[in-house]
Amino acid sequence: MLVYLFALAGAIYGAWSARRRKGSGLDMAQYAAGYAIALGVLGLFIDLILIRSL
Q1: Structure pTM?
Q2: Number of domains the chain contains
Q3: Using CB atoms within 10 A of its CB, is residue 32 exposed (0-12), middle (13-18) or buried (19+)?
Q4: Which residues form the domain of 40?
């Protein structure tokens, strides 16, 4: 479940970051996708660590 939350947070942060840098809609989409993938993978590792430790 953490994977989805981290990916959503990454997409929101990525779009906000591109908008702050005055990017176009395609820039916002690319940043959102990149941050969503990166934070989704981070969430996956955290989720796996939590599952293995419990």
Answers
A1: 0.90
A2: 1
A3: buried
A4: 2-53
